[in-house]
Fold this protein.
Amino acid sequence: MFRVALLPLFVASGAAALINEVVWFQLLALHFGGTSRAMATVLATFMAGLGLGAVVLPSRLGGGAPLVACAILEVAIGLAGLAMPGTLSAAGSLPALLRTPAITVALLLPAMAMGATLPAAARSLGAGRRAARQVGWLYAANTIGGVLGCVAAGFWLLRVHDTRVAAIVAAALNAVAAILAISLARGRATADHRISEPRRAVAVSPALDQSLLLVTCLSGMTALAAEVVWTRLLALLLGGTTYTFSLILACFLLGIAIGAALAASLSPPRVWLAWCHAALGPAIAFGAWAASVGLPAWPIDPRLSASPWVQLQIDLVRCMIVVLPATILWGASLTMCIAATATERDVQASHATSAILCANTVGAVIGGVGAALVLLPGVGSRASQQCLVAVAALSAVVALPPGRWRVIAPVRLLPSAAAVVSAILLVPSLPALAPSLVGWGRYAALYRKDPSEFLMVREGADSTLAVSRTPLGALNYHNAGKVQASGEPADMRLQRMLGHIATLVPESPRRVLVIGCGAGVTAGSACVDPAVEAETICEIEEQVPRMAADFFASINDGVMVDPKVTVRIDDARRFLRDTTATFDAITSDPFDPWVRGAANLYTEEFFALAKRRLAPGGAITVFVQLYEAGTAAVKSEIATFLRVFPDGLVFGNTSGGEGYDLVLLGTNGPTFIDLDRIDGRIRAPGAARLRESLAAIGCDDAADLFASYAASGPQLAGWLEDAQINRDSNLRLQYLAGLGINAYEQSSIYRSILASGDWPKGVFVGSAERMARLKKVGRKARY
């Protein structure tokens, strides 16, 4: 007999599952790599575990006590969640050949337990329409719990606390679910609820309608593929912060829960299923139009929001507009497939649930991985969504109520006919990706009349990028919905400062590592130093080096074709962890810290890893932006860097005399900037390209370059007293920067840094003439 108390059990279980998933995927990006290929592998493993668990485990756990089996599964999930941070850390430290199998096993086992909970509970419900309807309500409750867990993890647990606290909360929710399951099991009459089931793979049972398995497989395929595509588009529109990704996931789950609840009582399920899939194509098309055309045209200026939480409310509404229509149908589809399977074939609800969940998961793996690795980088978002509309029409045809085609009444063909006709009309009309959305992101409406000419738009496996040219001829490289590098004077100065300071401070910078290719200007600035013998550029998106070679060769010194340069397409953390090489200079210029994943390259552990890869006397430079970050985020970046490089130096890059961004300098040993030695290298006979590169940003000698000094680590101790350290366990920076994405506090931040700093004793050395010139030029720069 169905009990209402099962609903809170599954709400708690769903909340715990989503908290664990968010935590695990965050940790996996650190230890396994943040590339789309790595995360697609993780997603496939996790989803495969869900599907495998749904089929294999329920009939093998407590054959006579289904709710006891649920309790066992919840306890297992809770214990796995508590152990997962340490497990993944240990697996991440293994050699590359062992790392992937270890992480796969660590993720697969708890995923199987998660996938088995609903089918296990369904074994207590019996067979028929009523049991199937009750499964639908349990699925809806479980998904509502997922919404709550997603919001709790993304907006509270990980923002305020860390992965350890989040894991404890998830385990507590698993314990609550287990206690509820045990309590219900004890209150039941054993004779009425013991169900004996054959131990066989129900997914291939002849009692199951294979067309329903295909329908739910296609449904899962379109759902996960659409989530991948819409996440990419919405991240451009709203800003790719961790909060945006939490909102998108929460909206997806909310729509699925609503659909599952609405469909639980619909009858006959097979007819409604056909109409559900007939409506799916138009819903996907609407989402495509809203994300690419409709919402980017809304007259919204994020800078006007009184609080970041106000802007997040607007972003939530925009997410719902894109995803709810289709996700409600996907949620309804799965519930109706379970109902149709259990009702039409008189199959046990547990058999129907296991088979449908497994088929849906198989489709989700194909759709999610295919969209991330094949469709988006291969044909782009428009063609990807066209494929999804076509597949949705196919699923409507497959969902046609059973019967011989020659005796099917015309009225029963209406859903399939409607789906095919709508697909024929909608597929050609889906909008192309607007260059303005790629280039300007959340400011697309404000820049709709911008006179810049877009020369290229490319959708890669990890990001969507563009190149534009201003009316004055300056080139801009766009990624994550904003300009990431350009030929504008302020950006050129920053990009070249990163490269030149990194290579000029060490005595012999023979081997150089550049993290983040961008337009290639930083890499080119390092490469023109004649002392550099080998340079490695580590870039996560393979389209970026091609773009730098095709469009920016004139300002990056042709670095992409330089024989001493090697390009590695990889996650920088993974590259540094796996390489045995050391470098005399490292320069890091990742995405803005509010972009999800960028904070991984600003943690204390990452800086410590980079320091271990520095040769004795080596130097590292790191980019820190002052705008669109907020004071708390900037403090976190600087304080975290100084935890590893306590004597580090801060150099400022100003625009219009005001703060713009910073260059942090750290060394593997005592920091000495010998102006005489550096000037000697600059003026050497073979350093003509080095001199030209420096002259292009107004630097004739070492004094001009280092006069932008702002403060040292010890001098900033007071200002940084309230700074939050960004660690692997909390990734605090991405949450701070996400709230400061629309903050423009660069002037006040830079003035505070200058007020704390002064020329440090014993760091800058050289002749009296050069030291006097350094301080003279520095005074002009500071005041």
